[in-house]
Design goal:
The chain is mainly alpha-helical. The chain has helices at 3-13, 16-26, 37-41, 50-73, 81-100, 105-130, 141-160, 176-187, 190-207, 237-262; strands at residues 220-225, 228-232. The chain has one domain (3-262). The chain is built from ten helices and two strands, in the order αααααααααββα. Helix 6 runs antiparallel to helix 7 (141-160). The protein is globular. The protein starts with a helix and ends with a helix.
Amino acid sequence: MTEDEQDALASIRLAYEDLDRWRARSRGVERPEPGSELASDEAVWPYLDPAEVARQSLVSATQHLNLARAAIEAGEVFPTAHFSVLRGALVGSSMAVWVLGPDPAVDRQQRALRVVEEFYKRALQYHDDIRPHVDVSHPDAAQWFDAGEHMRRRRAEARARWRAADGLKEGQALEMTSIVRVVSEFVFAPQEALNVRLLWRQLSGDAHALTWQLVGRSSHAQHVGGGMAEFAAGGDLVELADVFGKVFSLTKRGWSLFDRRCEG
């Protein structure tokens, strides 16, 4: 291991104490204290309130970071899969910071309602794909169909509560690229915020197995003519540590905001 790689590994390991603490917290349900900002926010949608929306996002981010950590400690650095996992952590941490970041309650509530609507939208897509294949003679079939209609009503009700808020038009739905942009500018200085937005684009390539982003990570390239080249990309611990650090910083900000908004 080179000196740069040793430094990179050391920087990743500095996060482990926090990751262990967050993992322990994730095993139980945490509710806002009475009189806290998030306790008041519950009124906008008590069925999946802003506090729980944010907490679930932070739990997801924490799990993804710990999965990346486990592979590193097993001696594995994957050129694509590691970054795909960290993209999951970026989604979770960004969602939490996006919901928790604004001081005005209406902004937190309206952002949470967008996440809630997306929750029902995706659940209903899954439900509707299964629907044609359900055995209607099964004794639980009617209850299953009723559950789908219940979700459909909840989705419509959540959407009916949408209002314009900071950075949101009244009819604007959830869009992760926009969320990453807003959150990166909220947490980081301008140059680092740009780096996070570009990182979001790169990690999309990893998550969707498109490989274009590997060209920038290639360790060997051989031109074969006709504007074509062969290249090899292996795991790069230094680059991985940089991405890990950015996503960890977002997750840490998210947990900090959660604690602050939960205090009565």
